[in-house]
Amino acid sequence: MPICPPSSDSSSPGSGARAWIIHGLALGAAAAAAAAVAYLYRRPGGFRSRAVGIIPARFASSRFEGKPLAPILGKPMIQRTWERVMLASSLDHVVVATDDERIAECCRGFGADVIMTSESCRNGSERCCEALQKLKKHYDIVVNIQGDEPLIEPEIIDGVVMALQRAPDAVFSTAVTSLKPEDASDTNRVKCVIDSQGYAIYFSRGLIPFNKSAKVNPQFPYLLHLGIAGFDSKFLKIYPELPPTPLQLEEDLEQLKVLENGYRMKVIKVDHDAHGVDAPEDVEKIEALMRAKNIQ
């Protein structure tokens, strides 16, 4: 996967695949050092060493009913996503969490582990929380990977895991990439701003930052949020109990509840085209891209 390097000379041989992770995680390392020592002391055997990937999937959707089962070049979308997630080296286990037997049967058919969850889950994070509680083993990190990301790069998953391992003051991690100018006004494309240490400041469906001219600045490096979230497992267990927050409800973005409640969120930058499926017409775009890249 093309990676965002810390500087132009980091693209030399040997510096590629993980340069962006080291660059992004180095920011703020000094400020977190004392907390890291304390946290490591409390948790023998390594800091947040075990990670599970959970792919929440539901059949009902106002924009695209049955989306996880939509065929993409002959395979269900959920299978395409699962196959990509299985390539991540940082995950000790991968499961699909669903409340629909049709999705569960499909996933078992191609070899995925499935955990059945309640229909009362209000969002993917709550579904991941319930699935975590049903798992028999302990995990320090839970990565919520949206089932509508059939081209998710495994290196992004590994980066999100490493972000939480390197940032003891954060309970949540996620990824962003460059926003394309044509996506600036698309409310399905969530934008993000971060501070100088690589922590999230805000997410919005509108363009942020927004300047006085009310026009997109072609010189500004706007950031697009990708559909992946890493949770400290202890935080995930309390997340559903946190009351909804005003900004979360107004923007309809789960991650804002984390920020509004005062928790820190580490963000990594990656070079990745966003290829999530939000509506039926996106399937054709994904298939065309896969053909162009000769992905079977």
UniProtKB/TrEMBL annotation:
GO terms for biological process: carbohydrate derivative biosynthetic process; small molecule metabolic process. The chain crosses the membrane at residues 20-41. It is found in: Membrane. GO terms for molecular function: 3-deoxy-manno-octulosonate cytidylyltransferase activity. Keywords: Membrane, Nucleotidyltransferase, Transferase, Transmembrane, Transmembrane helix. Its EC number is 2.7.7.38. It catalyses: 3-deoxy-alpha-D-manno-oct-2-ulosonate + CTP = CMP-3-deoxy-beta-D-manno-octulosonate + diphosphate. The keyword Membrane applies. Pathway: Nucleotide-sugar biosynthesis; CMP-3-deoxy-D-manno-octulosonate biosynthesis; CMP-3-deoxy-D-manno-octulosonate from 3-deoxy-D-manno-octulosonate and CTP: step 1/1. GO terms for cellular component: cytosol; membrane. Pfam families: CTP_transf_3. Coiled coil: none annotated. Belongs to the KdsB family. This is 3-deoxy-manno-octulosonate cytidylyltransferase.
